[in-house]
Amino acid sequence: MSWHLDQDQLHRYANHTADDVTAMSVEAHLTHCAHCRDRLPTDDAWLESSWADLRDIVDRPRLGPVERLLGVMGVREGTAKLLAATPALYRAWLIATVVVLIAALTLAHEVPRGTLLFSFTAPIVPLIGVALAYGRGVDPAHTLTSVTPWAGYPLLLMRTCAVLVPALLLCTVAAILMPSSATLYEAVFWLLPALAMVAGCLTLSRWMHLSLAGGIVAVGWMLTVGIMALEGVDPLLLFSSTAQGCWAIALALLTVAIVLRVRTA
Questions:
Q1: Is the pLDDT reported for residue 67 higher than 80?
Q2: How many other C-beta atoms can be found within 10 angstroms of the C-beta atom of residue 70?
Q3: Which residue, 44, 83, 130, 229, has most beta carbons within 10 Å?
Q4: Model confidence over 188-233: pLDDT tens digits?
Q5: Which InterPro entries does the protein's record reference (predicted)?
């Protein structure tokens, strides 16, 4: 270095009294000048306290409520951290799901044929949650999680399970509370279509973004329902015994495709 900072510049920088331009200039100089770095005044007590706080955070991380719950359920700490670090959009989806299901329940009890809203909403509730649970653009922590050993399909499948559990639980509770749910079939008629569409979304994610795959499947479902209604065909045929068999076959085939993809990944 052909020049060095004077003591006044170092003192004002260390005490945070230098203007922005001077501070940036001093920082740029200190990066390359060991002599000036050695002359920089330091508060040893503050420095030691800062390092102690940092070590406390790094060495003894505090577990959140979700991580503690997963730990009680036997989930390993590293896996629990990845599952707990869900995107904000996923949490917004969970709140929206509760609101939609409450609205569907209200309509079902107050309006004739009000259960139709639940019938055509429940199958895509898990699908939308899966689409918002993983991937660049929806997950702020994606850059960090993408370099972990769990990156890719393992983390995607873990997040999918984390979405499916609350989604299926909420939808099942809502279905049981529906006025028409007198039998087990009437409470879970939506389950096979929902699982098949989730499997279809995961399969398509091999070639496109997970959110796009989920959007395509959801739009396909809504278009099918709309076209059947416009053509005078009862959309409830999508839940008939014959249709349930088709959904089961589709789910089995898509599951095999996902398993093969995971093994070859």
A1: no
A2: 20
A3: 130
A4: 888 899 999 999 988 888 888 878 888 899 999 999 999 998 998 9
A5: Anti_sigma_zinc_sf, Znf_put
Q: Are 258 and 196 in contact (CB under 8 A)?
A: no
Residues 21-63 have pLDDT tens digits of 777 787 777 777 877 777 776 666 666 776 666 666 555 556 5
- Rounded distance between C-alpha atoms, residue 263 and residue 208, angstroms: 19
CA 38 to centroid of chain Cα atoms: 47
In this structure, are residues 192 and 247 in contact, taking their beta carbons and an 8 Å threshold? yes
Residue 93, Cβ density class (10 Å: 0-12 exposed, 13-18 middle, ≥19 buried): buried
| Domain boundaries along the sequence of the chain | 7-59, 65-264
Helix (H, G, I), strand (E, B) or coil at 243: helix
In whole angstroms, give the CA distance from residue 29 to residue 248: 67
